[in-house]
């Protein structure tokens, strides 16, 4: 669930080397937080414990995440502004469902996770039910952040119910793809599996 509940924000591009180092540090923090949450429960460790497990200072830790819940779920991904510009213009495919899916693909490829990493995140969520509520809040934030772009894209034809159906279809396909991904039999890239699942759904509804 955590992969779809991270709110997307846009920001200017960062230098490749600096960005890669920051992503690696964030990855180390998230992985350490999930392991601690599985082993000790979300209330069974402190931020100092997390800093030590991730190999960062307490100050660095708080520069990345405000608390333990956010550390387990992960920081919001940063999506290039051009992605939203293309979406508002009706692209890249001209279909609301496929273009929402394209944003999901951008999120998945910005911070790729192996089946083992996804499984660890799911185990942490299942072992700590309050994280599920937090993740659902994140999902709601994601929905609200998309509404403005959808309204701009659709103009006078904007229909909230149509958007809700499109979003539900995309999220359901992502969940199905993630279940298959977790078997470890479908490679290490979730995005193609997600797109294949979405295409199957579209064929069934055609």
Automatic annotation (TrEMBL):
Taxonomy, superkingdom: Bacteria
Alphabetized InterPro entries for the sequence: DNA-bd_HTH_TetR-type_CS, Homeodomain-like_sf, HTH-type_TetR-like_transc_reg, HTH_TetR
One annotated GO molecular function: DNA-binding transcription factor activity
Polar residues composition-biased segments: 1-10
Keywords, in A-Z order: DNA-binding, Transcription, Transcription regulation
Record carries keyword Kinase: no
Domain HTH tetR-type: 23-83
Pfam families attached to this UniProt entry: TetR_N
Region (Disordered): 1-23
Regions recorded as binding DNA: 46-65
PANTHER family with a match to the protein in the record: HTH-TYPE TRANSCRIPTIONAL REGULATOR BETI, HTH-TYPE TRANSCRIPTIONAL REGULATOR RUTR
Protein's name in the database: TetR family transcriptional regulator
């Amino acid at each position: 669930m955590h992969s779809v509940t991270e709110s997307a924000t846009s920001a200017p591009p960062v230098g490749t080397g600096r960005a890669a180092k920051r992503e690696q540090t964030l990855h180390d923090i998230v992985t350490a937080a999930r392991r601690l949450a599985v082993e000790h429960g979300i209330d069974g460790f402190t931020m100092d414990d997390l800093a030590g497990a991730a190999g960062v200072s307490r100050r660095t830790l708080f520069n990345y995440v405000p608390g333990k819940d956010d550390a387990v779920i992960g920081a919001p991904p940063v999506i290039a502004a051009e992605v939203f510009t293309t979406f508002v213009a009706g692209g890249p495919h001209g279909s609301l469902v496929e273009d929402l899916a394209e944003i999901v693909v951008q999120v998945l490829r910005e911070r790729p996770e192996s089946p083992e990493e996804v499984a660890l995140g799911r185990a942490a969520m299942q072992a700590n039910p309050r994280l599920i509520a937090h993740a659902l809040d994140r999902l709601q934030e994601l929905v609200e952040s998309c509404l403005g772009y959808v309204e701009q894209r659709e103009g006078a034809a904007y229909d909230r119910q149509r958007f809700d159906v499109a979003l539900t279809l995309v999220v359901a396909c992502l969940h199905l793809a993630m279940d298959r991904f977790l078997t470890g039999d479908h490679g290490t890239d979730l995005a193609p599996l997600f797109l294949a699942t979405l295409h199957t759904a579209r064929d069934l509804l055609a």
